[in-house]
Amino acid sequence: MDKKLILGSNSPRRQQLMSEAGFSFEVMGLDVDEQYGEMPSLEVAEYLAKKKNVAYREVLTDEIVVTADTVVIHEDKVLGKPQSEAEAVEMIQSMSGQVHEVVSAVCISSPETEVSFSDRVRVQMLPLTPEEIQHYVSVYKPMDKAGAYGIQEWIGLIGVGSISGSFYSVVGLPIHRVYHCLKTEFALSPSF
């Protein structure tokens, strides 16, 4: 019998991707401190995914737990979730017409095994007008998104020129890697 799969995330996007991949899972949300110390920007997402997983392992016994984190990196600066609309506008303005990276990291664990990985994607954002940026922030309220934008939303339709890597990693979960890891490392089958 398969172990119970827990998605340790309140993100509706991650929940949707796990469902569409065919896995039966339960969602569990815990508040985890997302502070991190001095470290290379490319390591932040995986550090936070592991930190979240440790918090779940403390309260769960026999389940398989999937946790994730996504950060946007622009000019070697980590852009997390904006704290205000003004900060969201500022983040998007800084990336307008430039390339940035999105790093989505995952930690999957059971009592016997732990696997973690990161997926990097280069994103070319087209030049955006102040009006376009303000419209997006006012209408879509991207305060729950790293880098203040969702590629699957209006701004991605009109403002992303190209990506080099997985679209779903930019959304917030490298589902192709999660799928194969759950199958091969945890012997968990999709329910289709």
Largest sheet: 7 strands, mixed
Q: What is the CATH architecture annotation?
A: Alpha-Beta Complex
Question: Averaging pLDDT over every residue, what do you get?
Answer: 96
CATH class: Alpha Beta
**Low-confidence parts lasting 5 or more residues at pLDDT below 50?**
none
Task: State the share of residues found in helices, binned by percent.
Answer: 25-40%
Q: If you consult CATH, what is the topology?
A: Maf protein
From the N-terminal CA to the C-terminal CA, the straight-line distance is 16 Å
SSE order, one letter for each helix or strand: EHEHEEHEEHHEHH
What does this protein look like?
The chain has helices at 12-20, 44-57, 85-95, 130-140, 154-159, 167-171, 175-184; strands at 5-7, 26-27, 64-74, 77-79, 99-109, 114-125, 160-164. By secondary structure, the protein is an alpha/beta fold. The chain has one domain (5-184): Maf protein (Alpha-Beta Complex). Strands 1, 2, 3, 4, 5, 6 and 7 form a seven-stranded mixed β-sheet that branches. Helix 3 packs across helix 4 (130-140). The chain is globular and about 50 Å long.
